[in-house]
Input
Amino acid sequence: MPVIHSRSAGAPACELVQELVSELKEPHESGQPIILRNAIGESDAFNVYVIWDRWEGLSAPDRSATIREAFNNYDPSITSKIPIAEGRTPAEAISEGLLPVSIKPLLRRDDPYSTDEIREAMKAAGAFETPNGPQLRFARIEDAEEIYRRLNKSFPAIFALVVEEPRWE
Amino acid sequence: MPILLAKRVGTDTVPKLEQAADQRAQDAEALMSQGHALAAIYLFGYEAETRIKVAYFRFFFKHVQPPLDPLTPISHQLRNDATSEWLTLGLSVRPGPHDISGWAKLLIAKRREKRAAYDRIFEQTFSEQAERISNRWSEVLRYRANIPYAQELRAVREAVAWIRFRFHDL
Output
């Protein structure tokens, strides 16, 4: 009996669809998923990147199908305006330059705070867990500013706001 | 004796080019997913070039007098004739064979000439996406081993995705 392989267009993950729809309806100020809607010039079209550690293990077509299904549930009239709808884990997003703004701790030996305190503060502010420790990453400076202000208030002179990569858009 | 591939390809036609553009899109995505960024950009660029040329000739065949069959071969002469109008159409430079931005400008200008101009925002977006690709792509990439930045790949891919997305409106 021959084995026939066919390419799947991607199947939406129902549970993730629901969570995304909730996020679209009532966006949180911080945390995941992060939904980037990148406008295309002055047109009404936009590309969508959803950054979420829940994508781990899910194929690219399944991630795209999940996002499109969520947008369709949220507002069917806008799904025809989305050329790209893709999911990225935080590590993928960082390596692709989708989150070029970061808030980095510059802890010195004689500072009155411990590494653990700083780590916990970063996690509470929505830091991603990465192999290099927690990272506070943002798509735009304006997304980082409020969190940077709050962290600076609690831990003066510890954090720096950095735009790491050039925007080669 | 079977006819070998290079002899089997035949002449360009609108349907063949359209099919080729779809194939290049798949090839580019496959290369991108395997981490071959430069090769992906190279093929995305060809996808864009092919789609813009399809859009041009699809329009041209309908609006030339008398109209031409959509299956008319797109000969070297036909391409030459198309770009030779650059001055009368108001372009500042004659588009080269792989000048993505130039061919986009040619299509925009040809449509205007035939009173079938795009609406302002569509034209501007089309022009911007073609420019975005042109700034990062050249057919010379095939002779290079540069490593693109991730943002460069994303910029080209997004711009080509928009052209693909709105292909039937071009």
